[in-house]
Amino acid sequence: MTQQMNWKIVDATELILGRMCSQVAKLALLGEHVLIINAKDAVISGRRNQIIKNILIAREARDLANPHHGPFRNSRPDMYVRQKVRQMLPKNDRGHDAIERVHVYINGIPKVKEEKYKNQEAIQIKNASSSRLSHKFHSVADICTNMGWTGGSRDASLKSK
Predict the structure, then answer these.
(1) CA pair distance 125, 111, nearest whole angstrom
(2) What is the pTM of this model?
(3) Quick one: CA torsion of 88, 91, 97, 103, rounded to 10 degrees?
(4) 7-160: what CATH class?
(5) Comparing 11-15, 87-91, 111-115, 157-161, which segment has the lowest mean pLDDT?
(6) Where in the chain are the domains?
(7) Fewer Cβ neighbours under 10 Å: the N or C end of the chain?
(8) What does the angle CA 145 – CA 82 – CA 108 come to, to the nearest 5 degrees?
(9) At residue 157, does pLDDT exceed 70?
(10) Hey, is 43 helix, strand or coil?
């Protein structure tokens, strides 16, 4: 008999990415299983050009010790958000175990995986609403599109055939 895991579900729609990721990282370190849905709808505050410029500068960093491009950033929104959570965890076995308890999806839960996430409890992330922002912000989908994410257009064209 396998017992069902209790999943804490976070809807990332209109949540500030950094605040959400830090609270998800804390929950994961405490042993909770966390599911983030609608990752593409999370927001990043700041000017769009500056956000993209910082990502591209880091991507193109080269020197004698690191002749290749790097550090590598994922352009898919779910992997981008997961990487941000991972960066907020300790770099040891405890952090590695914690990131395995975090699952992220671009939209909702896929129908194939609904059985896995049967026992779920929606949680609210404190102080992370984009309504707190008085200045510009952009969605993760917009930033990832500028990093090369095609938005799943290939998958949509396959479904229409």
Answers:
(1) 25
(2) 0.82
(3) 30
(4) alpha beta
(5) 157-161
(6) 7-160
(7) N
(8) 75
(9) no
(10) strand
